[in-house]
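S2.1 Query sequence (Amino acid ABC transporter)
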Amino acid sequence: MSKISMLGKLVIAGCIASSLLGAATANARSLDEIMKSKTLIVGVNPNLPPLGVYDDKNQISGFDATVAKKIADSMGVKLELVAVGSNDRVPFIMSDKIDAVMGGMTRNDDRMKVVDFTDPVNTEVLGILTTDKKPYKKWQDLNDPSVKLVQVRGTTPIKYIQDNIPKAQLLILDNYPDAVRAIAQGRADALIDVLDFMLDYTKKYPTKWHVVDDPIEVDYDCIAVSKGNTALREKLNTEIAALHKSGFIGSSWKKWFGHAMLHDPTASPTKY
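Output structure tokens follow.
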């Protein structure tokens, strides 16, 4: 994700999926083959902190690695992590280089044409970050000439604002730390983006921050496996359900993100 907007990711995902349509389906390892090999190979993007990050020993760490390790331990197999980038997550699955992939794998229609998804592990919320001094209850409240939104140059929410919130002023800065600082200093009123990745920046300021309750969009991040690898997908679903029930996923999210998940991933509107 590299801190690009969630909507931006969806656009990228669509392009990837479209380019892969018609490609040959890889001969992915079955669940039986994985269990016999005693190794589960999972792709994680180490450039999406804190979902994935390199630690001080140059090992892949982060929320996704923590969950993948817990799943592998429960299955009684060794976890092998493979670094993947945003653009090669799906191709790695389709070329049989890995058994499963995480790394901000938002479930969407384009990707579902070429891979299968487990039930959601976590959510990403596109919403509004502001302060407790502002009265906003929903995104429509921002469509006013007196409102100054701050956004990061090149991100997709800018297009969303231009299309849906045209009356608001728009201050465009070069990066997220500067954007959050602008709100803390009173130079802007609010920011629209994937808030799960924004809240860490707010800790640097004594400002009383507020996330508007009504989200603009909620996406569900899952684990993707090769198309038709049903036994593996169902096994991962069992493990994910157990980790949600035990609270492991919730506590791991707090550990890595510093706050609770903003939306319940078990409230997914669609199961697969």
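The first strand starts at residue 39 and ends at 44. Residues 230-246 form the longest helix (17 residues).
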